[in-house]
Structure formats: structure tokens, C-alpha cells
Amino acid sequence: MDWPHDPDGEQGSEGMRQYGHAVLAKKIDEEEDFPLSAADYVEEYGDHPIRIDYETVVSVEEIFEGVEKEEFADFVEFHQELGRAMRENGYWFYEGADRFVGGSA
To answer: Superkingdom of the source (predicted)?
Structure first.
């Protein structure tokens, strides 16, 4: 796929290799962007690359296909919904993530 920028370049990783959830969160301003519409986020960033692991890159739009909420009231709600969608759709490969899900921590 032709990306609008290199997923590992300055725009995609802010100078360091960042993965999944971190890249999604860095595209918004916690103080100014909420409430945040999922449709507006996808409209603005849908074709942006998100590195999932060392060999997989998907678009923001692909990740948001699993997002159920239409709007996020705040940064915490955004993080929770994106984390849920990413785990349920195979985009979450962090070691030990199961410890923090479902109250089993």
C-alpha cells in the first residue's frame, strides 16, 4: 500500500519506532480534541499507517472498523475503546496485555 508517509519516519513514529495504540493517541490533543467523533478521526487520519508489530502495518481506517463508539467524551474513553477494538481484532500484540483486561490484574 502507498502510505501518505513512512510509518517509521518522523510523521509516523515521532522520531522513534512507535506501535499501534501509541501512534493513534499521538494524533490527538487531550485538552482540545474532545469530545471526539470517530468518523471525524477516520476522515482526517484514515489512510495513515499504524505499525502493529515489526512486520505489520495497517491503516487507521482498518483499526476503526472494530470501533463501536461513535464519539469519545475524553482521552480515557478513547484509549479504552481503541484498546478493546484492537484486542478483539488481532491488532494488540503486547506481552502481558491479558493481565490488564477483565479485572484479572
So the answer is: Archaea
Pairing, β 56-59 against β 71-72: unpaired
Per the structure block, which three cell numbers stand in for 8? Answer: 517509521
49-53 and 36-37 as β-strands: parallel, antiparallel, unpaired?
Answer: unpaired
State the 10-residue block means of pLDDT for the chain, 105 residues long: 66 61 85 95 93 86 96 94 91 64 52
SS (H, E, C) the chain: CCCCCCCCCHHHHCCCCCCHHHHHHCCCCCCCCCCEEHHHHHHHHCCCEEEEECCEEEEHHHHHCCCCCCEECCHHHHHHHHHHHHHHCCCCCCCCHHHHCCCCC
Instruction: Give the three-class secondary structure for 66.
Output: coil
